[in-house]
Design a protein that fits this description.
Number of helices of chain A: 22
CATH topology of the largest domain in chain A: Rossmann fold
Largest sheet of chain B: 6 strands, mixed
Largest interface: A-B, 54 and 58 residues
CATH architecture of chain B: 3-Layer(aba) Sandwich
Shape of chain B: globular
Helix content of chain A: 25-40%
Distance between the termini of chain A: 62 Å
Number of strands of chain A: 22
Distance between the termini of chain B: 32 Å
Mean pLDDT of chain B: 93
Oligomer: heterodimer
Largest sheet of chain A: 7 strands, mixed
Helix content of chain B: 40-55%
Mean pLDDT of chain A: 97
Strand content of chain B: 15-25%
Radius of gyration of chain B: 16 Å
Number of domains of chain A: 4
Number of helices of chain B: 8
CATH architecture of the largest domain in chain A: 3-Layer(aba) Sandwich
Strand order of the largest sheet of chain A: 3-2-4-5-7-6-12
CATH class of chain B: Alpha Beta
Chain lengths: ~600, ~190
C-alpha cells in the first residue's frame, strides 16, 4: 500500500481510479474542482471524462451513464446541486444500475461561495444516502464504498466533503488503480425510465421501501460508529468529529456520524445510555434533529438551544468553546488570541493586467448612473471598483438586469457576465430579455476559460477537458440567434474602443451585447505571451492619481508620484487612462 | 492535546506557499510521520492574503488554533504581523524582509505600519529575519525563495534537514534541483547566522 501527502480532492480522485470509475463529469466550483482536474490529466484515462456546461447537464449525463450500468462520478459545489436538483430528485425514483456518486462539496464559512447551504438536507429531501467524511483518509475510503452502496441499493449516493476536507491535506494510504470490467448498455424499461404519473407513483413507493435496510447498512459499513465511555456523550459529524476527537475527555462517550440516513434504533440505544448528549456538526442541525427525535427526556445540547452556531465553520478551538459552554469540558485548552487590529486588509483582487479591470472602468465611465448586475467569477471582484451591484447565483446577471429594467423606468442597466457563466445559465436569460423587450446592455467578459476555479476549458475555449480540439461556440452567433441585433466584439485592452462601443450601445434601445474579449492574464503567462512592461515617467507625472484609482496592483503611489512595480503585465490600459501621457514603455524614457 | 508540531506558512497568493507546505508534507512521509494540512484555494489566491497550516504528527483536524503555532513562516512582513496571534508564547518566526503594500493602502488611503514598526512588534517572539528574495536570486532564481525560507526555518523544525532537502529534490522541477539545493543551503546559512 502506497502513502502519499495529498490534497483531499486528489485523494478522492485517486479513490475513483481505485474504484474503476467509467464516467466522470461535473462543473467546476470551489472547493470541488480539483477532483475532475486531477482525473483529466492522468497519463492513462480508461474512462470517459467531460467538463459539462452546467451541473444539471452534468448530472443528467452521469445518470444516463449509470442507467447503462457503468460507474459514474459527477462533481459540483453545493450551490451547483441547486441547478442539478431537478434531475436529482427524480433520479432517486428511477434509481440506477451502475454506481452513481454525486459529489457536492459544501463550503461552511462561504470561503468561496454565495451561501452556506448544507448538502445533507438535499439527501434527506431526495431520500438518497449521503456520506460525510471526517478526514482526507476517510474521504478517500468512502468513494469505493459509495459506488458499492449505490449499486447495492440502486440509488444515487451524495458525497459531501467540505472545504476543510477538499482543501486540506494528509498522509493518505492509497490502493492500486483498477481497470473497469463493465461495458455500458441501456436496457429499455419505460416503467423505470419514463416517469409518467402511473410509473412514478410506484417508483416513489419503492424508494421509500429501500430506507430501513439502507439505514442498517450504513451502520454496518462503519462510517457511523460509537464508543460508550461515560455518562455523557458527544455526537459529531463530518470533520467536526475530527475536531472533537482532538480534545475529547476520556470519560465522555463519542459517536461519529459519517453517513445518512442515521439508523434511529441504533442511535436511540446509544443516546439512552447517557444522562446528557451534545451534538456538534457544521451548518444545518441534521444530526441534532434525529437525536432529538429519539432522545425522549434525555437533555440534548446543540444548535436548537443556542450552544452551537447554525452558520460558519467549526474548528478545534470553536468546538472546545461549545463543549465548555455545554458542560462537557471543564476548561478551554485554547487561550483566546486576538489578531493585531487595524492592519490594512489584503483581500483578493483582480490580477495586474486582468482583462476585466479595463472593461469595468469603461462601463463606469460611460454609464455613470447605471445599475450593474453582475455574476459569479473572478469579475465579482469588480465590487471593489464599484461596478458590481448584484450577485445572486450563476447566470443571474442578465435576468436580474431585465427584472430591474422592466421594474424601473428609464434606468440604465449594464450587466456583466463571464463566458463560462453565460454558457452555464446566462444564455436563457438573454433569450428571455430579448423575447420580452428589455432595455439593457450586456457585457460578456470573455476570457475563453473558467478562470476563477483553476482555468478549466469550456465550450468557448475550443478544447475539451482532456485537451482535444473541439468547435468553439460563437458567442456572437449565439447572441444573434437569441434575437440580439447589436452584438459587438471588442478587445478589452482597447480602452478607447470599449468606451466607443459602450457609447454606441447607450444610444440604442432593446438588448445590446458587447463581447469584451482578451486572454486571462494567467493563461497568457502560461502560454508564454510576453508583453513589455510599462513605467512612469516621473518628470511627466503630475501626481493626479487617475492611474491609482484604476486599482491595478502594479500601480503604487509614493512621494506624490505614481510608480509601476514588477507585477506589470503590459496590458497598457493605464497608458490610455493617464491624462499626462506619463506612462511609457519600460526603458524608453 | 494532540502533541503535533504546528507550522503556519503565510504570504500573498502566488508566492509559492503551497509548494513550501508540500515540501513539509513530503518530509513527514519520508520520516514515516503523520501529517495534516490546510490551505487557501480558489478566489482568495488572486493576490490575497493566503495561509497554509501544517501539523507535523497531526492526527486530527487540519487547522491550527490561534495561540497554538510553534512556528510561523512568512513571505511578507505585513502578513507575519497579521498572523502573529497564531503563535504560542514561545513560538518562533521566520520572515522574509519584504513588505508588499496591499492595494487597499492606495485605493482606501489606509496607513500601513512601517517596516521598523512591524519588526519591533514581531520581536515579541524569537525572530529570524532574512532577505529571501536576494538570497534566492543569488542561488540562481528568485522563484526559489520558498525553499530559502524553509532552509532558514530548518533549525526550528522537528524534521532532519537532510529529509527536507530530499523532499525539495522530489518536488521541485528537475531542471531546478541544483538551484533549489543551493537555495536551501543558503537559507540554512542565513537562518543560522541570525
Amino acid at each position: 500500500m502506497e502513502r502519499k501527502y495529498l490534497l483531499g480532492n486528489e485523494a478522492i480522485a485517486h479513490a475513483c481510479l481505485e474504484s474503476g470509475v467509467d464516467f466522470v463529469c461535473g462543473y467546476p466550483g470551489t472547493p470541488s474542482s480539483e477532483v475532475v482536474d486531477t482525473l483529466r490529466v492522468q497519463p492513462e484515462r480508461p474512462f470517459y471524462l467531460e467538463w459539462s456546461v452546467n451541473e444539471k447537464v452534468a448530472l443528467e449525463n452521469a445518470l444516463a451513464a449509470a442507467w447503462c450500468g457503468v460507474r459514474a462520478l459527477c462533481t459540483m459545489k453545493h450551490v451547483g446541486l441547486n441547478v442539478a436538483a431537478d434531475p436529482l430528485m427524480t433520479s432517486a425514483y428511477t434509481g440506477v444500475t451502475g454506481g452513481l456518486v454525486i459529489m457536492s462539496a459544501d463550503d461552511p464559512f462561504a470561503h468561496s461561495s454565495q451561501n452556506e447551504q448544507d448538502t445533507r438536507c438535499y439527501a434527506h429531501f431526495a431520500r438518497v444516502p449521503c456520506l460525510d467524511p471526517a478526514s482526507v483518509q476517510e474521504a478517500h475510503d468512502m468513494i469505493p464504498a459509495a459506488f458499492a452502496l449505490s449499486e447495492e441499493f440502486g440509488l444515487p449516493v451524495l458525497f459531501r466533503p467540505t472545504t476543510r476536507i477538499c482543501h486540506s491535506k494528509g498522509d493518505v494510504a492509497l490502493g492500486p488503480a483498477v481497470a473497469s470490467p463493465r461495458k455500458g448498455a441501456f436496457h429499455k424499461d419505460p416503467r423505470q425510465y419514463v416517469v409518467i404519473p402511473a410509473h412514478t407513483r410506484v417508483l416513489h413507493k419503492k424508494l421509500n421501501e429501500k430506507q430501513p435496510a439502507l439505514r442498517k447498512r450504513l451502520v454496518e459499513l462503519g462510517f457511523n460508529r460509537c464508543e460508550v465511555r461515560g455518562k455523557t456523550a458527544i455526537i459529531a459529524s463530518g470533520i467536526a468529529a475530527s475536531y472533537v476527537q482532538e480534545i475529547l475527555p476520556d470519560n465522555v462517550s463519542f459517536m461519529k456520524i459519517g453517513a445518512y440516513p442515521i439508523d434511529e434504533d441504533w442511535l436511540k440505544e446509544f443516546v439512552g445510555k447517557h444522562e446528557k448528549v451534545l451534538v456538534i456538526e457544521e451548518l444545518a442541525p441534521e444530526v441534532e434533529e434525529t437525536v432529538r427525535q429519539v432522545a425522549g427526556c434525555i437533555p440534548v445540547f446543540g444548535k436548537k438551544n443556542g450552544y452551537a452556531p447554525y452558520e460558519g465553520e467549526l474548528s478545534t478551538a470553536a468546538v472546545a468553546g461549545i463543549m465548555v459552554k455545554a458542560g462537557f469540558l471543564n476548561q478551554n485548552p485554547f487561550a483566546p488570541a486576538a489578531p493585531v487590529e487595524n492592519l490594512p486588509v489584503r483581500p483578493p483582487i483582480l490580477c495586474a493586467g486582468c482583462l476585466h479591470r479595463g472593461a469595468f472602468y469603461a462601463i463606469k465611465k460611460v454609464f455613470k448612473d447605471a445599475i450593474y448586475p453582475s455574476d459569479i467569477g473572478c469579475y465579482t471582484l469588480g465590487l471593489q471598483l464599484g461596478v458590481v451591484d448584484t450577485t445572486i447565483c450563476m447566470g443571474a446577471s442578465i435576468t436580474v438586469g431585465s427584472g430591474i429594467a422592466h421594474a424601473c423606468e428609464k434606468q440604465d442597466v449594464v450587466c456583466t457576465i463571464g463566458d463560462s457563466t453565460f454558457l452555464h445559465t446566462g444564455v436563457q436569460g438573454l433569450m428571455n430579455a430579448v423575447y420580452n423587450g428589455a432595455n439593457m446592455t450586456v457585457v460578456i467578459l470573455d476570457n475563453r476559460i473558467t478562470a476563477m476555479t483553476g482555468h478549466q476549458p469550456n465550450p468557448n475555449t475550443g478544447l475539451t477537458a482532456c485537451g482535444v480540439e473541439t468547435p468553439a461556440v460563437s458567442l456572437d452567433a449565439l447572441c444573434r440567434a437569441c434575437g440580439v441585433t447589436f452584438v459587438e466584439t471588442v478587445d478589452s485592452y482597447d480602452f478607447t474602443g470599449m468606451v466607443n462601443v459602450l457609447q454606441e450601445a447607450k444610444k440604442r434601445s432593446g438588448v445590446k451585447v458587447i463581447i469584451a474579449k482578451q486572454m486571462c492574464v494567467i493563461s497568457a503567462r502560461r502560454a508564454g505571451v510576453k508583453r513589455g512592461r510599462y513605467a512612469v515617467d516621473t518628470d511627466a507625472c503630475t501626481g493626479c492619481g487617475t492611474c491609482v484609482r484604476f486599482g491595478c496592483p502594479a500601480i503604487e503611489f509614493a512621494d506624490e508620484k505614481a510608480r509601476i512595480n514588477d507585477l506589470c503585465s503590459g496590458c497598457a490600459v493605464c497608458v490610455q487612462l493617464c491624462p499626462a501621457g506619463a506612462i511609457v514603455r519600460e526603458g524608453k524614457r | 492535546m494532540s502533541g503535533s508540531f504546528d507550522i503556519l506558512i503565510v504570504g500573498i497568493g502566488g508566492q509559492g506557499t503551497i509548494l513550501a507546505s508540500n515540501i513539509l508534507g513530503e518530509s513527514c512521509l519520508i520520516e514515516g510521520r503523520q501529517v495534516r494540512g490546510a490551505e487557501t484555494h480558489g478566489m482568495a489566491q488572486r493576490g490575497g492574503s493566503v495561509e497554509s497550516h501544517i501539523r507535523i504528527d497531526g492526527k486530527f483536524g487540519p487547522q491550527i488554533a490561534p495561540g497554538q503555532a510553534d512556528l510561523l513562516i512568512s513571505f511578507d512582513l505585513l502578513e507575519a504581523l497579521r498572523y502573529s496571534h497564531y503563535l504560542k508564547k514561545d513560538g518562533k518566526i521566520v520572515v522574509n524582509r519584504r513588505l508588499v503594500l496591499p492595494t487597499s493602502v492606495y485605493t482606501q488611503k489606509l496607513t500601513p505600519p512601517t517596516e521598523e514598526e512591524i519588526i519591533a512588534a514581531l520581536k515579541a517572539h524569537e525572530l529570524c529575519l532574512l532577505d529571501a528574495d536576494r538570497i534566492a536570486t543569488d542561488a540562481g532564481s528568485p522563484l526559489s525563495q520558498n525553499v530559502v525560507m524553509l532552509g532558514a526555518a530548518a533549525k526550528w523544525m522537528p524534521l532532519k534537514p537532510e529529509t527536507l532537502l530530499e523532499a525539495v529534490r522530489r518536488l521541485v522541477p528537475k531542471k531546478t534541483i541544483e538551484i533549489n539545493t543551493k537555495a536551501f543551503r543558503m537559507g540554512q546559512e542565513a537562518g543560522g547566522k541570525i
